[in-house]
């Protein structure tokens, strides 16, 4: 008996016919005005919970939930996992996203991937290969090669994609990008960006002691493609960011937010080199944990043969890791850390680097400077006279509905338009590559020259194992 024709099979047939006649049809599902557009949430607590609820508010029907914390077997568990399950009681629950996509993939139009960093690429790639649209949290991937893989896979599959750097949808960010590109402050000369993270332990010298895995957690599945480590509450559910195996440190956590506007204004250029200075009490070449602070310098090609210097600052200069408290504390008096790593005073020109929640960015141009914070629309320019008589360009970047990233994703899925999301993988993939390149310099403790086309370092062959790491048996990720 013939198999029933689904929307997916119908569109795949259209794509095959189009190929035969040398024209293209975007192979997304075909939606009518009253069609239900279904969504599966991979990761259901914390950021996963907000991504799922935001997607539902945008118009998706949440039909599937997936998490290594099994609230279906343990309904009295509480926390964000239980709340998400209660909010969508009819959603089918899975522990393993691989099983969910294999069994239910043709019933799922889109997924949110809100797992720890080390699972992003694997879950996103599997969903894309099933024809599902993908909204994946930042950083897009754990590794540089993984980001390139997802970028290329998005082009190949033509599904709608978007990275979850939420402020990318804000009108004020898009407007400032347009103004910088129009020459408001002249040519970009250098950029400075900083964060108050980490707010979790880093500079960790040894793995925590093994603890018994709680019955409600599928620990082997949580580990996924990463090297196996014993369970500890000092890893799951929150502190995993402070381990290279699972997270990408303060840079990976926040740079996709804070570097976003300035790198967008640079049209997602690739750096030619990166170097770093960091200190955490045990040296910057640890294979275990990111340092307690780092200053990273990227070099980008500029105009007229000149380079653009891009500086990143994170952490606290006085922070050390206390193994008894499993937390960061100050070297000054064993108390609260208090010396944030921020740009020098001559760059800030009197600006309080901690005023806006401790993170911000500053672009230095050939004619002036622009200060920008993703959370506020009160950006400003020095000298103010640059605004006098400036010919404001017309808007050139599409605006998201209600400045909401989930709305932008939903509208793109409904329209079958992979180009609509402004943080699509074609943009966020190269952006993630650039961001994570900083961790190469931190971990290798040397200047890394960079060949972006080939994802190699001409002077650091040892970087190869960090650019594309080995995966645990059974978790291969194919190009």
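^ Assign residues to that structure.
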């Amino acid at each position: 008996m013939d198999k029933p024709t689904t929307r997916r099979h119908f569109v795949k047939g259209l794509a095959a016919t189009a190929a035969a006649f040398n024209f293209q049809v975007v192979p997304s599902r075909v939606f009518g005005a009253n069609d239900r557009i279904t969504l599966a949430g991979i990761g259901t607590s914390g950021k996963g919970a907000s991504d799922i609820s935001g997607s539902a508010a945008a118009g998706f029907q949440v039909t599937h939930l997936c998490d290594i914390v099994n609230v279906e077997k343990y309904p009295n568990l509480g926390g964000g996992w239980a709340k998400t399950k209660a909010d969508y009681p009819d959603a089918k629950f899975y522990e393993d996203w691989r099983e969910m996509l294999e069994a239910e993939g043709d019933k799922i139009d889109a997924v949110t991937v809100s797992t720890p960093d080390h699972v992003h690429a694997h879950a996103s790639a599997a969903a894309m290969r099933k024809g599902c649209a993908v909204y994946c949290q930042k950083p897009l991937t754990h590794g540089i090669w993984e980001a390139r893989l997802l970028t290329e896979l998005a082009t190949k599959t033509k599904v709608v994609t978007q990275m979850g750097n939420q402020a990318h949808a804000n009108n004020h960010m898009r407007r400032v990008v347009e103004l910088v590109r129009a020459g408001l402050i002249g040519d970009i000369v250098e950029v400075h960006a900083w964060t108050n993270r980490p707010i979790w332990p880093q500079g960790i010298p040894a793995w925590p002691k093994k603890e018994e895995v709680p019955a409600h957690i599928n620990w082997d599945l949580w580990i996924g493609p990463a090297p196996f480590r014993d369970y500890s509450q000092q890893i799951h559910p929150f502190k995993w960011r402070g381990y290279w195996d699972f997270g990408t440190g303060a840079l990976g956590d926040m740079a996709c937010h804070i570097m976003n506007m300035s790198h967008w204004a640079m049209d997602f250029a690739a750096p030619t080199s990166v170097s770093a200075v960091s200190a955490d009490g045990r040296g910057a070449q640890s294979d275990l944990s990111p340092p307690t602070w780092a200053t990273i310098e990227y070099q980008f090609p500029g105009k007229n043969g000149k380079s653009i210097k891009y500086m990143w600052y994170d952490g606290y200069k006085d922070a050390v890791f206390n193994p008894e408290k499993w937390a960061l504390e100050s070297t000054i008096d064993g108390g609260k850390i208090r010396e944030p790593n921020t740009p020098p005073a001559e760059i800030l020109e009197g600006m309080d680097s901690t005023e806006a929640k401790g993170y911000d960015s500053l672009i230095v141009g050939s004619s002036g400077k622009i200060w920008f914070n993703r959370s506020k629309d009160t950006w400003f320019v020095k000298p103010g006279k640059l605004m006098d008589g400036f010919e404001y360009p017309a808007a050139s970047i599409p605006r998201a509905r209600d400045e909401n990233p989930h709305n932008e994703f939903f509208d793109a899925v409904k329209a079958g338009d992979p180009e609509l999301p402004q943080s699509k993988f074609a943009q966020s993939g190269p952006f993630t590559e650039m961001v994570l390149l900083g961790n190469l310099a931190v971990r290798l403790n040397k200047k890394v020259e960079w060949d972006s086309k080939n994802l190699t370092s001409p002077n650091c062959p040892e970087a190869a194992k960090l650019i594309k790491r080995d995966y645990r048996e059974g978790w291969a990720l194919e190009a």
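The longest strand covers residues 293-301.
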